[in-house]
Amino acid sequence: MLWDIDQTLIEVGPTTRNAYAAAFRKVAGRELERTWRFDGRTELAAATEVLGGHGLDPATGLLDRFLETLVVEYETRAEELAATGRVLPGAADALAAVGAMASQSVLTGNLYRLAVLKMTVFGLADHVDFRVGAYGDDAYERTDLPAFAVARAAEHFGVRHTGTEVAIIGDTYRDIAAGRAIGARTIGVATGYTGADALRAAGADVVLPDLSDTGALLSALTHPR
Length: 225
Description:
- By secondary structure, the chain is α/β, with parallel strands linked by helices.
- The chain is built from ten helices and seven strands.
- The longest helix is centred in the N-terminal third of the chain and has 15 residues.
């Protein structure tokens, strides 16, 4: 089981905007002017677009410096993150229930260090095995991330999971596309910017309004439509 983090398990409040603005200011020497929405993109893709949208060339080493500075800015805002963000309804119970029946990790657009930070801040880190996840510094395209998670699981568990042995759950069409790229079962959760109808149109096997009904989630995992 591979979970998206933002808008699936947690809401981060204003911390993302604040951390990006501060990191950009430190690296570029000017204010962040363009707005953006992640929509399930990887951090590599989002940061590249932010820099390019301001006329800056990511290939000059600026991208690496921006991402490293971004991590530091998030780390200094851990208390802000905890105070202004929240665990979404049912997320903790869902993680506990799924963890009792399957190995689970994250498949997220977040950089590895940010994924660990966010899950730790909100008390969710003990539910997942970060060794076998896939992260926003693994690849530019989200559809390339599942291959990293599958390979890591094979390395650590000695079993290569394929097809519907893998389940991916998330709130955007990019989560669904990532699952479909490897033939995984896909569960959409309409707790983000993408509505239930759009998640179904993207090909989700099951769409849930949120994670508050643990039974419905477990049913979606064991009896996918």
